[in-house]
Specification:
By secondary structure, the chain is of the alpha+beta class. Helices cover 53% and strands 16% of the residues. The protein has a 4-stranded antiparallel sheet. The relative contact order is 0.17.
Length: 160
């Protein structure tokens, strides 16, 4: 007897489902209702600002070792993300700008929000790590427009 296989209608939905399955069942429900409550109490910009601050605290709690190059910074950050199974970063140096692409981030699924909102946490972490690694104060890290790729976030470090 064969079982019917329903076609995948949306690869984004499939990836979100898989990401949610990777979240420990003991935390998935709690994180979902916590996020719902935060969304009901805060505007989207306030919620994102909170996530940016939390990302900065995360970076302070998980400091990078001394790094001599951008490649060492990328490797150190990816070592931290790997410990938490939070995907990986790819740094691209364009001279006057640094692009950071973060792939396979489970946070949008965990919080059950869009990647553009959840990326506040990542932005806060990357900004704090880059500042601690010696990034000049006149540079600012900003989220780039969504790429349309599921579980992907992109940032740019450039002059204010």
């Amino acid at each position: 007897m064969t079982h019917p296989v329903s076609p995948v209608h949306d690869s984004t939905e499939l990836l979100q489902h898989l990401a949610l399955e990777r979240i420990s069942p003991q935390w998935a429900g709690f994180l979902g209702v916590l996020s719902d409550e935060l969304q009901s109490q805060l505007s989207e910009s306030e919620y994102r600002a909170l996530l940016v601050r939390l990302g900065g605290r995360f970076a302070q709690a998980y400091e990078l070792p001394p790094c001599e190059s951008l490649q060492e910074i990328e490797n150190a950050i990816n070592k931290i993300w790997s410990q938490f199974q939070w995907g990986y970063a790819v740094f691209s140096d364009y001279g006057r700008q640094l692009h950071i692409s973060h792939h396979a981030c489970p946070l949008p699924a965990a919080l059950q929000v869009d990647a553009s909102l959840a990326s506040g946490f990542m932005e806060g972490a990357y900004a704090a790590w880059l500042l601690a690694a010696g990034s000049p104060d006149e540079l600012e890290l900003k989220q780039m427009p969504a790429s349309g790729q599921p579980m992907h976030m992109a940032f740019e470090l450039a002059a204010r």
